[in-house]
């Protein structure tokens, strides 16, 4: 079985479709930014065509090195952000696939998990158990709901590394993605492997 088919079977959809969709969006966005940068007199990386302090050979050399450094740094950040965007789309699809059973939907993964209601509903669908929840809309209620979800995961012996309720309520992208990946590993991948043995 190919890796792509393996993940398609485990996640319920093909992650390659998400990657292709993201790349199409990036190409259209890049074309817009390139046109905009030409209009503003900048190069494709967003740097001025002729920067200040470029007088003489030494100035030009330093400016070239600085531009090369920031160009490399910008490419690194762009690649990193692209990977996070692909993960976010893939995880959002997976979450929505299960939340459909609870008549819920997530638009923005980082925003829509903050109050804890969608997170609790996801865990209820995946585990088949009922979890209590706070009904209020204040930060205190949001923290209580997320903490309830995290405590349930710890009760199920799922190891959470450096993920606190505050991180999810504040919409921390890295830790929210980490939490969803941990849930996928336990409830989707482990259960599928267990069922096949």
Automatic annotation (TrEMBL):
Task: Tell me the ranges covered by the Calponin-homology (CH) domain, including all copies.
Answer: 85-188
Q: Which domain of life is it from?
A: Eukaryota
Kindly state which keywords UniProt assigns to this record, in alphabetical order: Actin-binding, Repeat
Q: Which Pfam families match?
A: CH
Annotated GO molecular function terms are:
actin binding
Q: Where is the composition biased (Basic and acidic residues)?
A: 22-37
Protein name per the record = Plectin
Native source species: Trachymyrmex cornetzi
């Amino acid at each position: 079985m190919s890796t792509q088919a393996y993940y398609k079977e485990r996640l319920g959809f093909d992650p390659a479709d998400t990657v292709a969709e993201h790349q199409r969006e990036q190409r259209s966005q890049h074309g817009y930014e390139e046109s905009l940068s030409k209009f503003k007199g900048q190069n494709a990386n967003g740097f001025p065509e002729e920067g200040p302090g470029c007088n003489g050979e030494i100035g030009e050399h330093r400016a070239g090195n600085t531009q090369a450094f920031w160009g490399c740094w910008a490419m690194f950040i762009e690649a990193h952000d692209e990977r996070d965007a692909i993960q976010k789309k893939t995880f959002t699809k997976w979450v929505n696939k299960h939340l459909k059973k609870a008549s819920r939907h997530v638009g923005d993964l980082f925003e829509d998990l903050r109050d804890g209601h969608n997170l609790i509903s996801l865990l209820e669908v995946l585990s088949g158990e009922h979890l209590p929840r706070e009904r209020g809309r204040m930060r205190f209620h949001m923290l209580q709901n997320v903490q309830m979800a995290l405590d349930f995961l710890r009760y199920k012996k799922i190891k959470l590394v450096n993920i606190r309720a505050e991180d999810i309520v504040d919409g921390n992208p890295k830790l929210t993605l980490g939490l969803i990946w941990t849930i996928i590993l336990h409830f989707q991948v482990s259960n599928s492997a267990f069922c096949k043995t």
